[in-house]
Amino acid sequence: MIKKICINKISIIVGILVLLIVSCLMAGCGGEKASDKEVPKEITVKDSLGREVSVPSKIERVVDLAIMDGTRVMVLLGVEDKLVGASDRVTDIMFGEDEDWYAVPKVAPQLKDLPCVGTPSEPNAEYIMSLKPDVILAYTTFGDSADSLTEQTGIPVVCIGADSCLNFEMYKLVGKIVGKEDRAEELSSYAEGKIEEITKVTSKISEAERVKVFYWSWNWPKSGEANTTDPYDPIDMAGGINVAKEATTKPYDYFSVTKEQLAVWNPDVIVMEGGESEAKEELLADPALQTINAIKNKRIYFAVAMDYGYDQPLGVCEVQYLAKLFYPDKFTDLNVEKECNEIMKKFYGVDGLWSDMLDKRSNVYRWE
Top-level CATH class of 42-187? Predict the structure, then answer.
């Protein structure tokens, strides 16, 4: 009996030792410890200008000089707490007394207290250094000064920017820098799915049925010419024909056309970038435009996705919004306000943002 008990005890001890050995091997005890494995101090990323930049593998402090894009992306990725400073576009406009509407202050009001580090083109290098950021996000337009800023501060500068309100590569870039690649991929895939719901319908519309659209950007009717761009992705995704495609331009380039040329193109719809309702009235009354279908039928609508850079969530919403404006008979079941509130909530985590924007921006069309 005693012999049997001893054998059982030995078996138990042996079993425990085996478990300990296996556990140690899994944790790295059989050689190099997991905690002792070399973790790279830096990673190299290719920014939106194609520059290769080495940044710390662990980012805790970020300064945003990327107009408003950097702050927006940080909020959307859920790492706004890492922001330690931003340009005046964020501190004085996005969080200023401006009457315009921005999503970020609704979602992250605490960022109102971010220190201002100057303008995107003329940042205060000494002040930025005092904030001790791990990385600076700069806008692609000011890429020429990125290397100079790094030389002044010793801080890596990554240029970010999107050539479209439906381009999510910028999200993936920032996601890689701040360790939120999964979130960036999630948002990108979600956006693609929402856009596909619209393109499944618009892709079946024949060329002859498609509405011709002119995108009026930057300057308003009081000027002698109209600025436009080709492409403007929400127009294409919503099934419209951007008449500016007939012009020979670089991709995503802004350029001017005369009102006489606009009359030749004769768009069915004009989409205006921002502006007040008075701009629409000026267009409708302009003698040079009276032969245009969009003017005769009063089909002038306001875009929403351009906000000191592109607001990608609003870009996804704008595809829904324009699709119903262009083809109301093909999207009778689309409740734009409900759908866009859901889209904005997916991105920003707050419900009712689209409705809140409509309350603020009276020029944006609202279905009864």
Answer: alpha beta
